[in-house]
User: Fold this.
Amino acid sequence: MNTTHWETKKMGKFTLRFRPYTLEMRHVFTVASFSRTTTPVVLTELEYEGIIGYGEASMPPYLGESQESVSTFLRKVDLSAFSSPFETEDILSYVDLLEEKNTAAKASIDIALHDLLGKIMQQPFYKIWGLNPHRIPPTSYTIGIDSEDMIRKKVKEAEQFKILKVKLGLDTDKMIIETIRSVTDVPLCADVNQGWKNKEEALEMAHWLHEKNVVFLEQPMPKEMIDENAWLTAHSPIPTIADEGCQRLVDVPKLQGVYTGINIKLMKCTGMREAKRMAELARTLDLKVMLGCMTETSCAISAAAQLAPLVDWADLDGALLIGNDIYDGMIVRDGECILPDRPGIGVRKNA
Assistant:
């Protein structure tokens, strides 16, 4: 799969290339609803006048996209009506209206276009947006659901991180937290992935987790349980964050009063343009902002990191969870996100 050749499509002044690639996880990755050892992605390149922008679509199983569906979508994209990548609004609006959903496929074009624009302007995108990279919060590192021994091993591997993200949602929740607390006292954030189904039990857990220095709850109950999530938010001692319950810009106003904040991911919202709009809208609604990721290469991670100075919490560890990253971009040093001072999204292909 990872030796697949690039498919090339010439479109007027633009050339689009894409190919499937499979990310290999360093550890089996388990959340409340499934386990996996790989993540399918599609890598993209958008070329204009000899300058190439890099993009990526990552498709964990629950998104409903696949390498085949992304490739099918990308074959439909035709940018020959556009004379310049600076027609960004028109280009991305056209891409968004091509089909419903397909948000990761759309994100792969959005990221490549932003990278291309930054390279033409010879500036990193965080500078084009006027953002200060020193304002990026420390990234969390994800500890998936596992046995006590493996959890201890993973936590020890994550010693550089100032905050850990813990996957919960099964009957092992307390064991996982207690195991982590036997090894470290760093702050935790708990991602339940819709695993809790009862609001009173969820509130009881929220109080217990608060005592264990858990700083927020991500998607504690199913996204359809709007009233129950709102009740929990009103009573919880720690903030609640919508993940599965927040996909795109249109969702954000509906979440005021239901959650304390939102988790923005490029693969859910079609890319950098809409992610930035979501962060800005959330601020006007007094919602906290978390910036998350899927399992991704440093390409999509570095793209998301360009807007990380706007957020309260960063969860940009996706490339650290894989063993076959083919890009060099944002790095993590002592738990801090370090953006390269390179144009566009700042990534280079590894030799």
User: Anything to note?
Assistant: The chain has a mean pLDDT of 96.
